[in-house]
Each structure stands twice: as C-alpha cells, then as structure tokens.
Automatic annotation (TrEMBL):
Name assigned to this protein: RcsB_3 protein
An example molecular function term from Gene Ontology annotations: DNA binding
TM region(s), chain numbering: none
Source organism per UniProt: Pseudomonas fluorescens
A biological-process GO annotation: phosphorelay signal transduction system
Keyword annotations: DNA-binding, Phosphoprotein
Length: 211
C-alpha cells in the first residue's frame, strides 16, 4: 500500500483527491496539509511514499511555488513530488521539473490523471498532463526540464507587470518607449510559452518576482 500525503489550501480539493487516490485500492492518504508550513511539519513526522501538492498555497512562513519545490527537493530528494496546479502551462512544467517535481497534473484533469501520475513516478518516470504534452508539441523542441531563461530587462518588465503596473507606467519608470516594453513583454511570454496575462502573473508570483 503506497502512503500518500496531499497538500492543498482548499479542503474540498483535498476531499476529491483523497477519493481519487484511494479508489484503486493501491494507495492510502496518510496525512493532509493546508499549506507549506503544515506540509513540512507533516513530512518530518509522517512517513510517505508520494507527495501530491498544490502549486499555489499562499500564507504561512514557508514559500509556495518554486521555492517550496526546491526546499522539498533538498530535504527529501528521494520523495516523488506530484504537482497539481490550475496554472498548467509549458513554463510551469519546465520550471517545476527543473526544481525537482516528478509530475505535473492540471487540476482540470486531476481526477483521471492523478492515478496515472502516481503510477508513473513510482515507476521512476516523469509525468505531464495530456494538455501539457500537447502544449509542449506546439512549443517545439527543447529540454522540458530546462527552466526558461529571461533576460534581465524582460524579467524586470514581467516583475513590474505582475506588481500591477501598466505597460505605459513601466515605460515611463524605466525611460523606454511603450513599444519597447510591449515587445519585451511579448518576447518574455514567448520564451515562457505563455499566452495570457493571467498565466504570466501566476508565473511571476510562483517564481518569487512578486509577493
């Protein structure tokens, strides 16, 4: 029987995940956490074989997103981590694998794909949601475990956008033209394989660019 810990700040999501994980009879949810702080406390006390965790769990002393993934990878390098997120895009996939995740599952597809992800990571394989695999094909060749790299100016623009500034305000702040800032934003989104502002802002927060 595989021992699984699940972490999500929404109780209803944890209930659904528990049902899906235990349905096949091969896994048992041995503990649940509502955020990074509680998760790290549980991992120190409760043995488990697989961790299923949300990506964005704000609050508490410990960071969520990539900061949490990196910490988990350092402290528990042998523990397979399955990331379940609503921010499922190529940038999140590549950066998550680069920070130690073994699988990434879109919340919209978690019911059918979570058992597949658990089976894959327990067999020593990586896993990505079908929707993400399709995005990877569209994004073209490249190492999916390689975190996307932005230039300093692109990163600066993304950070300011995520903090609530408009393109015009950024242009005035850094003394560059509006067209230049717009191009740097578009280039950053292309590098990250992100198509919407919502995903861009989510990536910026997860990457620690903004609180």
């Amino acid at each position: 029987m595989l021992r699984v810990i699940i972490a999500d700040d929404h109780p209803i999501v944890r209930i659904g995940q528990r049902v899906v994980i235990e349905a096949g009879g091969r896994c048992k949810v041995v503990a649940e956490a509502n955020g990074p702080d509680e998760l790290l406390n549980l991992l120190a006390e409760v043995p488990c074989d697989v961790l299923v965790t949300d990506f964005a769990m704000p609050g508490g002393q410990q960071a969520d997103g990539y900061g949490l993934l990196s910490l988990l990878h350092r402290q528990y390098p042998g523990l397979p981590v399955i990331l379940v997120t609503m921010f499922a895009n190529v940038a999140t996939l590549r950066a998550s694998f680069a920070h130690g995740a073994r699988a990434i599952v879109a919340k919209s597809a978690s019911a059918k794909e979570l058992p597949l992800a658990i089976r894959a990571v327990c067999a020593g394989q990586n896993f990505a949601s079908e929707s993400l695999r399709e995005q990877l094909l569209e994004a073209g060749p490249g190492d999916q475990s390689q975190q996307p790299q932005l230039s300093g100016k692109e990163r600066e623009v993304v950070r300011m956008l995520a903090s609530g500034m408009t393109v015009s305000q950024i242009a005035a702040r850094v003394n560059r033209s509006i067209s230049t800032i717009s191009k740097q934003k578009s280039t950053a989104m292309h590098r990250l394989c992100i198509s919407t502002d919502v995903d861009l802002f989510a990536y910026a927060r997860a990457a620690g660019m903004v609180p």
